[in-house]
Amino acid sequence: MNNQDLINITKEFGSPVYIYDSERIISQYKRLINAFKPVRNLKINYAVKALSNLSILRLFNSLGAGLDTVSIQEVKLGLEAGVDPKKIIYTPNGVSLEEIEEVAEMGVQINIDNLSILEQFGSRHPGVPVCIRINPHVMAGGNTNISVGHIDSKFGISIHQIPHLMRIVENTGMNINGIHMHTGSDILDIEVFLYASEILFDTAKNFKDLEFIDFGSGFKVPYKEGDIETNIEELGEKLSARFNKFCKEYGRDLSLAFEPGKFLVSESGKFLVKVNVIKQTTSTVFAQVDSGFNHLIRPMLYGSRHEIHNISNPGGKERFYSVVGYICETDTFASNRRITEIKEGDILAFDNAGAYCFSMASNYNSRFRPPEVLWHEGKAHLIRQRETFEDLVHGQVPFQFETQKAKKMSK
């Protein structure tokens, strides 16, 4: 996509609007596959929470990927997209036993991350294959909200609880067919990841009937030119060799699984907004746009950086702007950012808008969520309509209040 393509999309579908480039998604998927070529059995399960549009799920299904889901609703989206339930792994956190049982009935791979539910599920369904989610207590992540491998994390079963875990497995006779590692997001140091992997390999030796080992994901993607990212090729080379060695020690070939979300879709996405107002105060020039953190919350929630380009004036002189939204509270996308000169009516493009952007959008301030467009084979395809007022009130049940005048007349 070039700038004119993006501008044409805003003319056709309005702004704000999300756009995803299928070619970029496919190239990232192939990059990951190629990095782990030495592994005989590789499973890539796309993390649905990153971007859950049905068309995106269908794209991954066409590539041969499975899905990583965290809710029964995501499981149902995957099935709606035509994905084989055997290619879906369900990794919830803190959900009810009833939800897990309902998902198990769908034929989906269950992944359990706490001892209480493990014992209850194993006692009631010992024949159902279960994966166990392990917390190796290895920290990874660029923000406290996504660095969740610490000992007090709500995610995963602590490696220090392995003896208790083994008692549950032995007492219930349940079928453990996989183990899973949880560390967090934005992994930069490959050696830290490999260290955590050794803990997982050591844990795997406790189980004799494994079919796969799931290393999660959390790969760091670049958010600006020259930004650091996870070296997938180096990780693939080192982890593949170690995994193949472990399989020989274990006595048979297992599948190596990953659950990337951001790595696959982040860079494919653009978020386009229109500048409503240029407002200058004593020290700041604001570019106020027709969106807010109701549509893209990551800068406010995580302090994340999204590069912003004025595609209406790409060759203009650079000035400093604070790009802010129209939500009725502090709503800042970027502070004092160098952007080519902006005028009212210009279109700004946000990079890295494919992951955790639309999927975290809301109707705060009663604003409509924007449409989603897939750029595929040189054409723009609408894959989600812009919401309407009817969508906003759908499901609401208005309560009828008696007016004061009617109350007086009834007396």
Automatic annotation (TrEMBL):
Pathway: Amino-acid biosynthesis; L-lysine biosynthesis via DAP pathway; L-lysine from DL-2,6-diaminopimelate: step 1/1. GO terms for molecular function: diaminopimelate decarboxylase activity. CDD domains: PLPDE_III_DapDC. Its cofactor is pyridoxal 5'-phosphate. Keywords: Amino-acid biosynthesis, Decarboxylase, Lyase, Lysine biosynthesis, Pyridoxal phosphate. The modification N6-(pyridoxal phosphate)lysine is found at K49. Residues 19-354 form the Orn/DAP/Arg decarboxylase 2 C-terminal domain. It catalyses: meso-2,6-diaminopimelate + H(+) = L-lysine + CO2. Substrate binds at R298, Y302, E329, Y356. It holds the Pfam family Orn_DAP_Arg_deC. Transmembrane segments: none annotated. The keyword Lyase applies. Belongs to the Orn/Lys/Arg decarboxylase class-II family. LysA subfamily. Homodimer. This is Diaminopimelate decarboxylase. It comes from Salinimicrobium flavum. The gene is lysA.
